[in-house]
Structure formats: structure tokens, C-alpha cells
Design brief:
Layout lengths: L21 H27 L5 E2 L2 H11 L3 H13 L5 H7 L1 E2 L2 H10 L45 H7 L11 H10 L4 H13 L13 H8 L31
Antiparallel strand pairs: 1-2
Helix pairs in contact: 1-3, 2-3, 7-8
């Protein structure tokens, strides 16, 4: 029996010029050392588990906040900042709900170049310039300096299409399901109605025009803010909004 491949890695290289990166300096200026700590924590989780991505859900946010003794609101703010400033890829996050970046994938493939490892196509970051990476079933070849990662497979398209997993069909939730989910997590009923109405009228697409695949993940990152909490259910003191939101024209009727 063939030995299963280990996808995670026990270390990752850190660029000595990282603090010359304008994005990192902005992160430090906005959130000070706590922001950089959260960013580095996410990188560690990415590399040690799947190797090039990590699922970002409510449990993941809790784990970061609990481990670092920080608020979940701050963790959300920092992750949103990283997405907006291309430290993580926003398109892949919006579509798949995972955190990754071209730099992460590039370093991962370089470390794993002698292994039978490939990146799942749905997580690959495609930009204008291609990177010279041949992602096949058994190897990965040279990596250039360009950031984008695009598979250059020699496999015929018909064969690739057959091997692709069929995407799970998205079934929009009912208003009651959304209200129930908000209630379970301690958020206001009227906010649940606003969220449902807005996405339902947009045919379950977000403000960037991306089709929503996981409505619970979208609700968590866009609507689960401190100022939307139901204080009658939660006795915690209200804090300032965590700033993690999405600009959508949801006009109340």
C-alpha cells in the first residue's frame, strides 16, 4: 500500500525584508504588533495543516482569539484588512471561504517540489502574469519570480474535466433558517431579516458579484458584528463595531 502524502510542512521561510513590505508596514501601523501576530499565526496554521490554505470559519476565529488572548472582533478586523490589502487572496476567500495567497502557494510548492503534491484547482490564484509551474499528478517544476500561480498541465482538457469533482449545488436558506442561525449565535432578529432580504434580492450574490457558496460563512464575516448582537440574550457589554462588513445596498422597507 502506498504511503499517504503529508500535505503540511513543519517550517516555512520568512523573507528578511518582510518589514520593508508596504503591506506589512500598513498592517503594523493600523493594528500594531497584535496585527502582525495574528497574521503570522494564520500563516503557521496554513503551513502546518493543509500546507497552502486554511478554512476560515467561526471555530478558526475562536481558536486564534483564544490562543493569543485577543478578541474575536480584532481577529476579524485583521483578517479583513489582510484580505483588502492582498496579504490573502480575497477572491478565493469570497468563493471558497479559505485563506491563501500567491506567496504562500509559491513557497509551498518550492518546498514540496520533490513530492507528489499538487494544489487543488479551485484554490489556485490566477493573475495576469503566469508563473512557470507545471502542476501534474506527480511533480512540480521550476518557479519563477512572478507571483501568480497558474497550472500548465499537459493533460488533455477532456481528462481533466472528468477528474474534477462536481461542485455541490448551493441551496439558498429560508428566512427562518437565517433567523434561527442568527438567534443561535446571539444576534438580532431584525438584522437577520435585513441580511436575508439583501442577499435574496441579489439572487444570493455578494457585493462583488460573487455567487455565495456558504451562506453561514458569509453571514459570520459580514453580519456577525458586536453592534448587531442581541443584548437581551447576551449580557456582555456592547463594544465598538469590529469594522468587518460589506457594502451592500440593503435598504430597509
Amino acid at each position: 500500500m502506498a504511503r499517504s502524502l503529508e500535505t503540511g510542512i513543519g517550517y516555512f521561510p520568512l523573507d528578511t525584508g518582510i518589514f520593508s513590505d508596504r503591506k506589512i508596514r500598513k498592517l503594523l501601523k493600523t493594528f500594531e504588533s497584535k496585527g502582525y501576530l495574528i497574521y503570522t499565526f494564520v500563516l503557521c496554521e496554513i503551513y502546518k495543516d493543509k500546507g497552502y490554505f486554511v478554512k476560515c470559519d467561526t471555530d478558526f476565529l475562536f481558536d486564534i482569539a483564544d490562543t493569543l488572548n485577543l478578541s474575536e472582533g480584532l481577529v476579524k478586523e485583521v483578517i479583513q484588512f489582510c484580505l483588502s490589502n492582498v496579504l490573502f487572496d480575497k477572491r478565493v476567500f469570497d468563493v471558497e471561504g479559505v485563506l491563501t495567497s500567491s506567496g504562500v502557494q509559491k513557497r509551498y510548492l518550492k518546498i514540496k517540489e520533490r513530492s507528489a503534491i499538487k494544489i487543488d484547482e479551485k484554490y489556485i490564484i490566477a493573475e495576469e502574469k503566469s508563473i512557470n509551474v507545471a502542476i501534474t499528478d506527480i511533480n512540480v517544476t521550476e518557479i519563477t519570480e512572478n507571483d501568480a500561480i497558474i497550472p500548465q498541465s499537459k493533460v488533455k482538457k477532456s481528462k481533466v474535466n472528468k477528474s474534477k469533482k462536481k461542485e455541490k449545488e448551493f441551496i439558498p436558506p429560508s428566512l427562518e433558517e437565517v433567523k434561527s442561525y442568527f438567534k443561535e449565535n446571539g444576534y438580532k432578529d431584525n438584522v437577520a431579516e435585513r441580511a436575508f432580504r439583501g442577499y435574496n434580492e441579489a439572487n444570493w450574490h455578494d457585493s462583488n458579484g460573487n455567487k455565495i457558496k456558504n451562506w453561514k460563512q458569509k453571514m459570520n464575516f459580514v453580519w456577525f458584528k458586536d453592534d448587531n448582537k442581541d443584548l437581551n440574550k447576551n449580557n456582555n457589554n456592547a463594544s465598538k463595531p469590529d469594522g468587518l462588513g460589506e457594502i451592500i445596498n440593503f435598504n430597509e422597507k
